[in-house]
Every structure is written in C-alpha cells, then in structure tokens.
Specification:
This protein is an all-alpha fold. The chain has one domain. The protein is built from nine helices and two strands; from the N terminus they run H-H-H-H-H-H-H-E-H-E-H. The longest helix has 38 residues. The radius of gyration is 20 Å and the shape is flat.
C-alpha cells in the first residue's frame, strides 16, 4: 500500500472509495442529522478533524504499539480526539452542539474512522495518513452537506438556514429562502426522506461511474485499430 499516490488517495477519498457513498459507513449520523446543510457541515467538519488527527497519531505510534492491543489503543486515541472536539464545540458553537447532540460523541463509533486507522494509517507514513484522513473526511462532509441541502430545500424551501450558528451573525445573509408561502414536502426532512435522498445519490453516483466506464471502454476500442495500423 506504500506505493499508492497522493492523487489516488484524494480520488479514493472524494469519490472512488467515499466512506458514505461506497463503503456506506457512518450511516447513522449521515441520515439522522442531515435535515439541513449546516447540520451536515458541522458534523462533517467535526468528523474530519477527528479522522485527520486520529490518522496522524496512529501513523506516529504504529511501530511501537503491539498487534495484540492495537485496536483498543486506536479506539482510545479516537475517543480522546472526539472528547476534545465535543468540548470545543460546547464552548464555541453551543447552539449547533445542542442540535447535533448525541451524534458528536457517537463519532467514536464511526466505522470510517477506525477503519482508516486500522486499514491505512497503521501501515503508512505520516504524510500519506494525513492526506488519506483529509480526503476521506472531506468526501464524507460533502455527502453530508449535499444530502442536507437536498432535504432542506425540498422540505422547507431554504438553504443554509442557521448558518449563523457556525459563522456568526454576519452569516444570516447567506440563507436562501423560497418564501413563507413555499409548500415543502414534509417527507424530505423525516427519516424516510433521508433514506430516499441517499438512495438517489447512490443511484446518481453509480450512473456516473457506469458512464465513465463505458466511455473508457469506447476510447480503448477506438485506440486499438490505430495501434494495429
């Protein structure tokens, strides 16, 4: 795995091996908190911070931790960073912290984080582990924000409502609204709407991947006669 390039790491994290759309990890918070884009962004940033710091730490200690105890050590490392992130959000983003609630400490149980620590960071150097954590975290965050934006717009006719919870009072102007008379689809902001929206996103990704694969095959077929000539 040491021969993997940084481009591959970024491409895997953002698309090819996206934790939410391919590995289908972290679905509990993904579906539970994404009724608005800001909620998704807040949880995504928190998860990314924990993922990057955990990968860095695991990479640094990978040669001194015995195999028999590596998983408990990794969980302890992740739990420590989750606690630090939770306390920071409680101090500086209290309103958003109250909205996200139990899903902040539940980052400890996110399989994407322990999975990257075990499968990648424990076998690679500091720089690659950092890039991997950042790419995986950003990919997960993008799915959270996209899913939250879709559900928020369809269900309430708004985008980036409560942006001030993250960016201060000046960010109130970032909110887009279709108006008070907008009749949204209540289903979109309910749990079934989360499953439906995620299913649509999965279908879209699979369709794009299939089209790209067909184009690559077509290009290869067109190159064969030229190579033979």
């Amino acid at each position: 795995m040491s021969d993997i390039t940084y481009r591959q790491l970024i491409r895997d994290g953002l698309w090819n091996n996206n934790a939410a759309l391919v590995a289908l990890l972290g679905l509990c918070p993904l579906l539970a908190v994404t009724n608005t884009a800001i909620n998704g962004l807040g949880l995504g940033i928190a998860t990314t911070v924990v993922l990057v710091l955990s990968n860095i730490t695991v990479s640094l200690i990978r040669n001194i931790v015995r195999n028999e105890i590596r998983l408990p050590v990794f969980v302890l490392v992740i739990a420590s960073f989750v606690t630090a992130v939770e306390l920071s959000m409680n101090a500086w983003f209290f309103e958003l912290y109250k909205i996200l609630g139990i899903f902040i400490p539940l980052i400890v149980t996110n399989c994407a984080i322990i999975g990257r620590a075990e499968a990648f960071a424990s076998k690679n150097n500091l720089v690659k582990s950092t890039v991997d954590g950042l790419a995986m975290g950003i990919g997960f965050t993008l799915v959270l924000v996209a899913l939250g934006a879709m559900r928020e717009f369809i269900g309430m006719g708004t985008l980036f409502t409560q942006a001030h919870l993250m960016f201060g009072e000046a960010a109130r102007g970032l909110t887009f609204s279709m108006g008070d008379n907008f009749q949204g689809a209540l289903l979109a902001i309910l749990p079934p709407g989360a499953f439906i929206a995620l299913g649509l996103m999965l279908a879209m990704k699979n369709w794009i991947d299939q089209r790209n694969e067909e184009r690559a095959k077509q290009a290869a077929l067109e190159e064969e006669p030229e190579a033979a000539a």
